[in-house]
Amino acid sequence: MRDASLVARIPTQWLRWGVALLLIALALFLWEGSKTFFNLPDYKLPHLAQIGEAFVRPTPQGPVWRVLLQDTLYTGLEAFLGFVLGGISGFLLAALFVHWKPAERGLMPYVVASQAVPIIALAPMIVVGVGRLGAPPWLSKAIIATYLTFFPVTINATRGLKSVDRDALWLMHSYAATRQQIFRKLRVPASLPYLFTALKISATASVIGAIIGELPVGSKRGIGVQIVVGSQYNTFNPGFLWATIIMAALLGMLFYGVVALVERRALHWKQE
After folding, report:
1. Has residue 45 been placed in a domain?
2. Is the pTM higher than 0.90?
3. Structural domains in the chain (count)
4. What is the pLDDT tens value at each position of the chain, 272 positions in all?
5. Residues in Cβ contact with 170 at an 8 Å cutoff, skipping those fewer than 6 apart
6. pLDDT digits 0-9 by tens, 142-164
7. Backbone angles phi, psi at 58, to 5 degrees
8. Residues 113, 145 within the same domain
């Protein structure tokens, strides 16, 4: 009982950080333990020290961590543009579906079918096609990120815009509210929880889309290019490949964290 009371006095934030640090320590222990117990070669699973050494290894452009940071920021810009374009286009499409039923019946099957096409097959065509138009190289990656972003936003926003309380909708009609007023004051607030759920999914999907767009031959910048370089030299420098993977994962976590923070600020009224 005394131990339980002591745990109850620990601030919740400290408990969260403690659990997070414990899980990280456990993951690192399992990493090194698996390599030692199964005697895995470095090209399959390098030591953590090798990954750390890969970050600080010097290059003509500076330390590896600086080169990877620059490429990660470049990929982040592509993913951010795709995330914004995909979010806006997905929400506008959802608004069209809510206000015009024929559009939903006619276009929704194509929206769903678009996600059945492997993005790895579309990426080279988009990169080559946009490149022939003389557009900036980052535009094709942003388009691929948009492609992966708009679908969850469209589906969730459509459901959210339709989730308004029936009594509240009748009340708005009794006040002779216009369609625009109902949409702005009733449907949009009701859709925010659904919308932010989609945006958190799309945040990481946009990063994946930008990286996939950088994989075709010809790309010169981006963390996807570094992943390809790391995979080519994985046998000789296995730590570098994992360093690029870590940077890509951190970028996805950053995108997700920003959306989650905005959600907490925007939906504080719902929590209250």
Report:
1. no
2. no
3. 2
4. 455 555 555 667 787 888 888 999 999 999 988 888 888 888 888 989 999 999 999 988 889 999 999 999 999 999 999 999 999 999 999 999 998 989 989 999 999 888 888 888 888 888 888 878 878 888 889 999 999 999 999 999 999 999 888 888 888 888 888 888 888 888 999 899 999 999 999 999 999 999 998 887 667 889 999 999 998 888 888 899 999 999 999 999 999 999 999 998 888 755 54
5. none
6. 999 999 999 999 999 999 999 88
7. -75, 150
8. yes
118 and 35 in a single domain? The answer is: no
Residues contacting 202, CB < 8 A, separation 6+: 83, 86, 87, 90, 148, 149, 150, 152, 153
d(C-alpha 210, C-alpha 264), whole Å: 26
How far apart, in Å, are the Cα atoms of 189 and each of 142, 157, 184, 265? 29, 11, 8, 14
Here the tokens at position 55 are 């970050």
Q: b or e along 220-232 (b: 16 or more beta carbons within 10 Å of the residue's beta carbon)?
A: ebbbbbbbbebee
E strands of the chain, at which residues? 58-59, 62-63
- Degrees, nearest 5: CA angle 263-93-257: 20
